[in-house]
Amino acid sequence: MQHPSTASTATIVLTGFDPFGGDTVNPSTAIAQALHGQRIAGNTVVAAQLPTAFGAAQERLRGLVQQHQPTLVLCLGQAGGRAALSIERVAINLVDARIPDNQGQQPVDTPVLAQGPAAYFATAPVKAMLQAVRACGLPGEVSLSAGSFVCNAVFYGLMHHLAQSHPGARGGFVHVPWLPEQGTPALPLRDMVRGVHALLWAAVLHPQDIALGAGAIH
Ligand code: PCA
C-alpha cells in the first residue's frame, strides 16, 4: 500500500528557459530546478528546461503536458530590465523578434498560430499570486505584456493547447529579473525561488482569483 503522503500523482509542471541573447545563465531555469520535487498542497513540482527557440519550445512543452497531465503549468522566463517578479496576464498571437532565437530564427510580424484568437488570458490566478509574492516582502507586479519573443509565443501556445486539449488544467507565465551577476535591476536567486514557491502555493490554493487592483494606467 502506498503511504498517503505519496499517493497523489497530481503534478505541477514548472519550466524555465536556457540562456539566450549572449547570456550564459538564465535565472528562470535555476529557479525551476531549485523547486523540482517540492510538494505543494498535494501536487508535486516537475521542473524542466525549454529551449529558447520558437518551434522547439512549443513541442517540448506540449510533450511535458502530455506526459504529466498536470493540474497547473507555470512557465518562467527571464526579462532583463524588469525589477519585479512579473506575473503575466495576457499572451498575444504575435511574434516580432528583435533578436534571433537560439536556433537562428527571427520571425517578424507573424502570428504564433495562424487562425488562433488574438490573445489568451492566463488561467492561473494572477492577483492571488501577486499577493503571495508581496507577502514574502518581494517585488511583484501583474504585467499586461509578455513581449513578442519566445516567452510570449510559449505562453500563447500553452494557453491554446490547454484550452483545446486540457480544459481542467490551468496555465500561467512569470517573467523574472536578472540575477545580480547579469546586470541591474536584479534579484538574488534565493529570493526568486522563495517568491515563485509562494506564488505556486497561491495558485494551487485559489481556484478562483481574488479581487485586488493591480492594473496599469499606461
Ligand atoms: N526570456 C525570453 C525568452 C527566453 C527567456 O527566458 C523572452 O522573454 O521572450
Could you provide a short overview of the structure?
With 218 residues, this protein is an alpha/beta fold. The protein has helices spanning 4-7, 27-35, 54-68, 126-135, 150-165, 189-205, and strands spanning 11-17, 39-40, 43-50, 72-78, 85-88, 90-92, 95-96, 108-110, 119-121, 140-143, 170-176. It has a single domain, classed as Aminopeptidase (3-Layer(aba) Sandwich), CATH 3.40.630.20.
Q: How much strand content do the residues show?
A: 15-25%
Q: Give the H and E element order.
A: HEHEEHEEEEEEHEHEH
Strand ordering within the main sheet: 2-3-1-4-11-5-10
CATH class: Alpha Beta
- Major sheet characteristics: 7 strands, mixed
**Could you name the CATH homologous superfamily?**
Peptidase C15, pyroglutamyl peptidase I-like
Binned, the helix content reads 25-40%
First CA to last CA: what distance?
A: 57 Å
The tally of helices reads: 6
Mean pLDDT across all amino acids: 96
Which distinct ligands sit in these coordinates? pyroglutamic acid
| Domains (count) | 1
Explain what the structure shows.
The protein has one domain: 3-Layer(aba) Sandwich (Aminopeptidase). Helix content is 33%, strand content 23%. Helix 2 packs across helix 6 and helix 3 runs parallel beside helix 5. The strands form three sheets. The chain has a seven-stranded mixed beta sheet, sandwiched between helices. The protein has a two-stranded antiparallel sheet with strand order 6-9. It has 218 residues and is α/β, with parallel strands linked by helices. Strand 2 and strand 3 form a beta hairpin. The site of pyroglutamic acid has 12 residues, from strand 4 and helix 5.
